[in-house]
Amino acid sequence: MRYLLTVAAFMACLPLVAQEKVVRLYEGRAPGSEAWKHSEKESRTNLWNTRVVFNVADPTLSVFRPDPAKANGTAVVICPGGAFFGLSIESEGNEVARWLVEKGVAAFVLKYRLVECQTDDPTRELMTRGNLDPIVAPIVKLAMADGLAAVGYVRRHAKEYGIAPDRIGIMGFSAGGTVTASVAFNYTPETRPDFVAPIYLAYNWTIKRGGVPQDAPPMFILAASDDPLGLAPQSVSLYQDWIAAKKPAELHLFSKGGHGFGMRKQDLPTDRWIERFADWLETQGLLKK
């Protein structure tokens, strides 16, 4: 018993690599979806073979904080993907956050609002709904609002989390990349991200009111050329729009990797995509204390 108490006391003294808590983005019902009746669910048996969150109606941020000895003041809001029907919350969310905190970056995994599913398997359901464009369009506006609110929250609480208010970025995967790019086109001074990173995004769903902003943030874009959804050219289009507006951008296209790889291991160079993102953060001066 004395041994167990000693171990417990020792463990309690160890610095936490990442401390997670959940923060609601809105005090009441999320604006624009006040009449929604459904509630958040999870699926662990699905076509994506991963934990999937769906039917999100109450957007939240899961907070991952780095060891204070490693913290550099940079923060990233992470938007998992899933065609706006679900969120691949581990491979494109929590695992990304845990990797980043090891680099001293605070991470905030966003659960943004999604299409209401009629079944308990969003991965199969989205394949049966036909043309997704009209289904997804109204949800993109709400998800973008959640992305903007997330950036605003992190900036308002920067001091609390030990974050520099001018080192707050947003990144996202697939539909989460759509959210990220939409935020990059539609921010206010309070919700402007200092850098953005859409990963294999669906650019055709992005809300692009008014074109590339005059003070658009630097952008990191990444995808695989063999994406079975044919999304690689959309990453190129976003890159071209940023460059045409004379804004800084970096584009990576892997020959193989498919879609939705996130932090999955496939024995391909895409397994190390996040290292390229870290390289880019380094060149931006965002990994320095």
Describe, in short, the structure shown.
Helix content is 32%, strand content 19%. The protein has 289 residues and is of the alpha/beta class.
Which structural class do the helices and strands define?
A: alpha/beta
Cross-sheet strand order for the largest sheet? 1-4-7-5-8-9-10-11
Give the ordered list of helices and strands.
Answer: HEEEEEEHEHHHEHEEHEH
Terminal residue distance: 43 Å
Number of helices: 8
How confident is the prediction overall: mean pLDDT? 93
Major sheet details:
8 strands, mixed
Strand content: 15-25%
Can you count the beta strands?
Answer: 11
Helical content class = 25-40%
Main traits of this protein?
289 residues, alpha/beta, eight-stranded mixed β-sheet, three-stranded antiparallel β-sheet, 11 strands, 32% helix, disordered N terminus
Could you explain the architecture of this structure?
- This protein is α/β, with parallel strands linked by helices.
- The protein is globular, with a radius of gyration of 19 Å.
- The protein contains 8 helices and 11 strands.
- The chain has an 8-stranded mixed beta sheet, with helices on both faces.
Set down the secondary structure blueprint.
Layout: H1 2-13, E1 19-24, E2 41-43, E3 52-54, E4 60-65, E5 75-79, E6 87-88, H2 90-102, E7 106-111, H3 122-125, H4 133-156, H5 158-161, E8 168-173, H6 175-186, E9 195-199, E10 219-224, H7 232-244, E11 249-254, H8 273-283
Helix pairs in contact: 4-6
